[in-house]
């Protein structure tokens, strides 16, 4: 079973405004609400790709209930811990460019954090744990590291899609997959990454420090995958980007779905990239039919 963890879920409130005037009254011509948070997005796309999974994390209040209802409708299994606080609403403003305002996280007691760790401690060697998204201020930045340690103990596969201090804290830990984008990877090494060669160079450093696989997504420029003995480069399909929210998360879902379906790392990588683009070219997240269609446009080359 694949489990996802979202410590700080959200309702993503998408507003479309023709032209955004700062400091003025703006009226949106279109609005939508989606259950959000990176782990939840990973779960939703996995379910669309027919891969059973369970979403874990913290939810609460009327916004939390909205997310639970939406997950039930999409038959995503879940075992969230109730925070009894209102889950945040993240505003995604789509105009000539995309701007986002992500809300802060709730206070999560030590007891609730321990409950989540206990859930993670139940996983075994057939399981994958995907931790995705930021760690709210009230939670120690080492929580993902503690989860990784439990996975290592029980031989479960640990996957992380995070950035900043949360990613930094995972360096030196055994992980099955890390999926930074090139900005996040650059931030980690205090540099700017502008080519696939540079991305592969720094991804290799993560592999040397304990990651089995590292995917670096580079938006419309393609993506790279570095494994313990190989490196691969993928192009991305052509299309119009409608929504980049959740595109990176979809790469993780597609990769894991591809791996479950084919057990072929190169095919899984191609499927991941197709899933990322299928979300980027959609209003909401990728559908299976669209991923399959875009898969035909993704070519993966081995570079060593
Ligand atoms: N312009 C584009 N054309 C085609 N595909 C794209 C484009 N931008 C993003 N994608 C798809 O989305 C994936 C993830 O994009 P990106 O590298 O921006 O990740 P991210 O920053 O983690 O995403 P997110 O917006 O979810 O935070 C890419 O690997 C690609 O599959
Ligand atoms: O605040 P975080 O946890 O870094 O990111 C949360 C978020 O921006 O990421 C998802 C897209 O990847 C959205 O659904 C959600 O609003």
Automatic annotation (TrEMBL):
Tell me which stretches of the chain form a coiled coil: none
What residue stretches are annotated with the Carbohydrate kinase PfkB domain?
Answer: 11-280
Q: Which chemical reaction does it catalyze?
A: beta-D-fructose 1-phosphate + ATP = beta-D-fructose 1,6-bisphosphate + ADP + H(+); D-tagatofuranose 6-phosphate + ATP = D-tagatofuranose 1,6-bisphosphate + ADP + H(+)
Q: Please name the Pfam families in this protein's record.
A: PfkB (PF00294)
- GO-annotated molecular function: 1-phosphofructokinase activity
Look up the signal peptide feature and give its range: none
Q: Does the keyword Glycoprotein apply?
A: no
| Enzyme superclass (EC) | transferase
Which Enzyme Commission numbers does its entry carry?
2.7.1.144
Q: Which domain of life is it from?
A: Bacteria
InterPro entries per UniProt: 1-PFruKinase, Carboh/pur_kinase_PfkB_CS, PfkB_dom, Ribokinase-like, Tagatose/fructose_Pkinase
Family, per entry: Belongs to the carbohydrate kinase pfkB family.
Function recorded in the entry: Catalyzes the ATP-dependent phosphorylation of fructose-l-phosphate to fructose-l,6-bisphosphate.
Q: What is this protein called?
A: Tagatose-6-phosphate kinase
